[in-house]
Amino acid sequence: MAAVTYGIRLWGLMLPGARLTGPLGRFVALIPVAVFAALVVGGLPGGDWVDSGWRLSAALVTGGLVWWRGSFSFGLMAGLGLYLLLRGALGA
Amino acid sequence: MVATSAFALGFRAMLPLLLGVAPFGAIYAVSARAAGMSLFDTQLMSLALFAGGAQFAAVGLVASGAGGLELVLSTLLINFRHLLYGVVVRTTTPITGVRRLVAAHLLTDEAFGLHVIHGRGRPGYLLGAGLCLFLAWNAATLVGALLAGGFPDPRRIGLDLIFPLTFVALAVPLLRQRVSWLVAVLAGGATLLLTPRLGSSVAIVCAALLAAGIGALLAPRCGRRG
After folding, report:
1. pTM score of the predicted model
2. For A26-46, how does the pLDDT look when each residue is reduced to its tens digit (9 = 90+)?
3. CB contacts, 8 Å: A42 with chain B
4. Which of A2, A12, A67 has the CB atom closest to B85's CB atom?
5. Which of A71, B17, B124, B211 is a plausible cystine mate for B7, CB 3.0–4.6 Å?
6. Of A10, A13, A58, the CB nearest to B165
7. Distance (Å, rounded) from C-alpha B226 to C-alpha B207?
8. Cα distance from A57 to chain B (closest Cα, Å)?
9. Interatomic CA distance for residues A52 and B75, integer angstroms
10. B14 in Cβ contact with B23 (< 8 Å)
11. Residues 38-77 of A with CB under 8 A from B
């Protein structure tokens, strides 16, 4: 398992260093935002609709603060803080 | 004044994310011990594999008596997106020799995400971020393996939310062009649709490839490169 994981990770890093152009270059450049969005959607839903709503609210707060303030840590902690506050105040 | 090295910047950037990641390292270890794995094997998996999703899957498969081929195939499916990470890193950051070999072991979701946003062109940044997570993950594994129970599930107290919030925070700086918004929406929608059929790991890879591919084709029509 370790060899498979390492091999997968190394394989991508072993590509020639030439900059990709055209559609392939655009494709590679768009992979990060695509993967991040997929990871968000994959991890956001909660135990039920109420919890999912709280988690979505936290995500919107995080995204909004990062957009406005440009602070990764602040946005992250604010979103998590809101979620924990909602859980504590309104019941998990 | 001494300039902070890229390695130190990457290491420091990973610190806030440890709150959400490290507890899962401990939970993995508790699960592994409960499945009958020894302290040594539990720790060795974190040291050698260093991939949370695959480690949790492995514990489940070991507990159900799965064979080596199943373990390998599940690892391949769960971690396939790391191939995409390597491709992206390689096209933006010159990384060769020993550093590349080390980076390949440390290339996780979080390290990749931080590197894309803050560390492009700086191999040291990726290594610093990856090493920070590696140390924390393995320390948490050791704690969990030693406690072997009595450790609170981070999902019950809501700390699992840090993972998707991390990628919300990482995605925002990338959403500066219309095509990026389009790709994000497509990837999210495709993930929702595909997860019930393919499972989350495969769905994420398929959704990302599909969305990035459509975005690459439509980018000229959107007026700017993606």
Report:
1. 0.81
2. 898 899 999 999 989 988 888
3. 164, 191, 195, 200, 203-204
4. A12
5. B124
6. A58
7. 17
8. 11
9. 29
10. no
11. 38-44, 55, 58-59, 62-63, 66-67, 70, 72-73, 75-77
Report the chain B residue with the minimal C-alpha distance to residue A40.
Answer: B164
pLDDT digit string, tens, across residues B94-147:
888 999 999 999 999 999 999 999 999 999 999 999 999 999 999 999 999 998
C-beta of residue B155 within 8 angstroms of C-beta of residue B200: no
User: Radius of gyration (Cα) for chain A, nearest Å?
Assistant: 18
Chain B interface disruption, residue of A41, A61, A68, most B CBs within 10 A: A41
Structure token pair of residue B93: 């950051």
Return the residue of A nearest to B186 by Cα.
Answer: A34
Copy the structure tokens of residue B87. Answer: 């491709």
Alpha carbon distance B225, B222 (integer Å): 8
What is the spatial distance between Cα B8 and Cα A13, in angstroms, rounded to a whole number?
A: 22
For residues B112-145, one letter each, b for 16 or more C-beta atoms within 10 angstroms of the residue's C-beta and e for the rest, the string is bbbbbbbbeebbbbbbbbbbbbbebbbebbbbbb
Q: Do B81 and A73 touch (CB under 8 A)?
A: no
Q: Which residues in chain A have their CB less than 8 angstroms from residue B169's CB?
A: 62-63, 66, 72, 75-76
Helix axes A2-13, B68-79, angle to 10 degrees: 30
Question: Can you state the angle between helices B162-171 and A49-69, rounded to 10 degrees?
Answer: 40
Burial class (CB in 10 A: 0-12, 13-18, 19+), B78: buried
